[in-house]
Each structure stands twice: as C-alpha cells, then as structure tokens.
Amino acid sequence: MKKLLVCLTAAxxxxxxxxPVPDPDNKNTxxxxxxxxxxxxxxxxxxxxxxxxxxEKREFKIEGADxxxxxxxxxxxxxITLKTGEGAPAQENGDPYEPEYTxxxxxxxxIVTTTKGTVLKLNGANLSNKDAPVISAPxxxxxxxxxxxxxxxxTTGTKDENNKTGAITGEKKVEIGGAGLLTVSGNVxxxxxxxxxxxxxxxxxxxxATDVGSAINCNKFTVEALNKDDEPHSFTANLKDSSNGVKAxxxxxxxxxxxxxxxxxxxxxxxxxxxxxxxxxxxxNYENVTTEKEIPVAKS
Length: 300
What we know:
Blueprint (H helix, E strand, L loop, with lengths): L3 E5 L20 H18 L13 E6 L3 E5 L5 E6 L15 E9 L1 E4 L4 E12 L5 E3 L3 E5 L4 E6 L10 E13 L2 E6 L3 E10 L4 E5 L5 E10 L12 E19 L3 E13 L4 E3 L5 E12 L6
Parallel strand pairs: 4-6, 5-7, 6-8, 7-9, 7-10, 8-11, 9-11, 10-12, 11-13, 12-14, 13-15, 14-16, 15-16, 16-17, 16-18, 17-19
Antiparallel strand pairs: 1-2, 2-5, 3-4
C-alpha cells in the first residue's frame, strides 16, 4: 500500500557571510589583524549578556497517511485533523481499523484524532499550542514514543483556573507508552487529562502542570502489573510542579513502573469513596510532597 508523506515546512533561516577584501599591497596586514582581534575580543565581552538565539525549527512530518488514514490541514495550518477514510478494512481479529501515524519535527497548533484507537508514534516531535490542547482526542488514543527519541508536548498559554483541559486531552481513554522520552508541560492547567489514563512501556515520561492543576487528571488511572509479554512495565514517570501528581476521581491502580513525585501538594488523590491501590512492589519516591496519598472523607 502506497504511503503518503505530509510535510509542513517551518520557516528557514538564511545566514550571509562576508569575505574581507585583501590588501593588494599586503600592507598593514599585522596591524589590521591585531585591530581585528581587539575588536573581536571587545565584541565578545560586550555580547556575553546577549540572549541566546532560539534554535531553528525543524520540518514537521506526518508519516502513515494513505487512502484510509487521512490528514486534513486547516487553511491557516494550525489545526491537523486525523480521520479514517470510507471503506477502511477491519483488523485481522475483527476489530475496527486503527490508523497509525508517525510524527516528527516541530509543530505549533492542535492535532485532533477522530478515530477510536488512533496511534500516534512520536519520533523526535516537539508539539505545542497556546491555550487549547495540543492533542485533542474525542475517542481512545494511544501515544507512543519511539526508542532513542526525545519528544515534547507543551501548552504555552497562561494559567487559567477555569480551564479543564491539559496539553493532552482525551474524552475517553488516553494511553501513554513506548520506549523513548516524553515531556508534557501543561502551563494552562493540567498536563494530561482524560476519562481514563493508562501508562505503559519502558520509556521515561515527565509531566508537569500548574499549581491549580494536576500532572495527570482523570476519572480512572491505571498501570497494569504485566505487559503483553508477561513482564512488569519498566517505565519511569516523573510527576512534578503541580497541585497533584495524579488526581483520579474514582480510582488509582498501579501494578508496576517507577514513579518519582516532586514539588506537589498531593501525590495521589481521589474523590471521597475513591480507591488507591499501590503495592509495595511499585517504586515510588516522594520529594517535597506535602501529602503522599489522599482520599477525602465524604461530607455527611
């Protein structure tokens, strides 16, 4: 099946170089060189406090598009919608078609997935948006980091206590896995928000939010004890710089993985009558966390 490649090219920076005109008589060469060195040294001293220029943006690519895995781009280039085309075949086990896309490079805007079970593979992707979620999924979505890659998902807007979204926002289930590095920064309110959130795999995920939000906010938070190979998940989850590490309305169940929680009011929190199940076999480290676990007492 022929694959299509969708590319959004970021702005290119052009650098001009200047070549000095040689002295035809070869006069004052040493004097000019000495003067140039002095000017260069003086310039270096004066430029020590100059701001460091931002790195050049990389070309953004979406791989995996075909006649069944469609990519729609808004006129302003700020919204990318991933959807399934008509006649998409079912999987061999009979389950509905689940498109897979590989994202790489830099993109500013929103990515919307509309098909249940869409898989987003991050291959060195830096994704950002201002006030709205970077990734918005009305149905189940899986986000996987590829091995030996570093990836970021960031909301860059200002803190908004009334905002209920995260940098990654799913109305159903959000799965985070893979073998690479992922940093999620929710500077508006939450880091990851979903009805259900599950972490798996062997990578490293770092999630931060605001002091009025949670690194992970959901109704149900789950980490299975074993993966599909009957081995414990070996990921490391760094949850930090938020009001809560995990705030799950109903339940928190963690069967494997390593958790490092820092700079939080509460590490793990549910609503009244919720449940928190973290066996001693799970490695959890707390640093500057006011309350490690909290299940509030229901008001009579």
